[in-house]
Each structure stands twice: as structure tokens, then as C-alpha cells.
Amino acid sequence: MWVDSEGVFHTASLPDPALLIGASMVDFIRNSGLLKRARIQRIVDKEEERFLEDARSAVDIAAYGTDRPYPPHPVFGTVTNVRELRAGLEAVSMTWRLDAIVTIDEMLG
Questions:
Q1: I want to staple 92 with a disulfide (CB 3.0 to 4.6 A). Which of 5, 22, 68, 97 is the partner?
Q2: What are the φ and ψ backbone dihedral angles of 10, each rounded to 5 degrees?
Q3: Structure confidence by residue, pLDDT tens digits, 25-48
Q4: Which of 74, 97, 77, 91 is nearest to 19 (CA)?
Q5: Does residue 68 register a pLDDT over 70?
């Protein structure tokens, strides 16, 4: 994610979401049924709202950005259930959190 000179957040879609969120998260989302996917979507929507609220109150909003398209390692470890997904999202650094949220949201499509 990067922040432009007007304070607008930008993310870029990756050809392989596992580069950002890890293979375990990708598999977890792809193998989730409709009800679980709906629950994941609610979590992602709530986390996006929380991210934007936190970012608006940040003193140095540019500190949230980076010039890298994705982190050196995926931001999630093993994810096998919704609890691990939620905990993982909360643990992702603010630099990568919006990217992770958008990537998961795109996978839920």
C-alpha cells in the first residue's frame, strides 16, 4: 500500500495472492463454503472500517505506506479457521493490513 500526496491509500492486485497473504490463507478462502465466506466477508469489512478509522487519526499517515509491492514474506502463517483469520488480520502491520484486506476481499469476489 502507498499513500499519495493527498493522503489517499492505494493498493495493487497481485497475480498470486499467496505472495501477500500466504498459501494457507488462499487455500482456506478457496475451500470455504458460502456461509463461511459470508462470515469472512463481514470480518474483512469490519477490519477495513477499523483500518480507515485508525489511519484517519494517525499523526503521520505516510508512515503507513511502503514502496514495495508486497512484503518479503506472507503476512499470515497457517490459517485453518475463522478465529485464526481474525487474529491474523489484527496482527498484520498497518503497512500491509489494507493490502491483506483488499486481497481477501477480491478473493471472496
A1: 97
A2: -135, 140
A3: 999 999 999 999 999 999 999 999
A4: 74
A5: yes
How far, in Å, are 33, 42, 98 from residue 48 at the CA level?
22, 10, 7
Enclosing H/E stretch for 9: strand 9-10
Query: What is residue 62's predicted lDDT score, i.e. its pLDDT?
Result: 61
What's the grid cell of residue 38? 459470508
| Domain spans, the chain | 20-108
Tell me the three state secondary structure of residue 3: strand
If one compares 16 and 54, the residue with the highest pLDDT of the two is: 16
DSSP codes joined into one string, 38-87:
HHHHHHHHHHHHHHHHHHHT-S-GGGG--S-SS-SS-S-----SHHHHHH
Q: Whole-angstrom Cα distance, residue 84 to residue 44?
A: 13
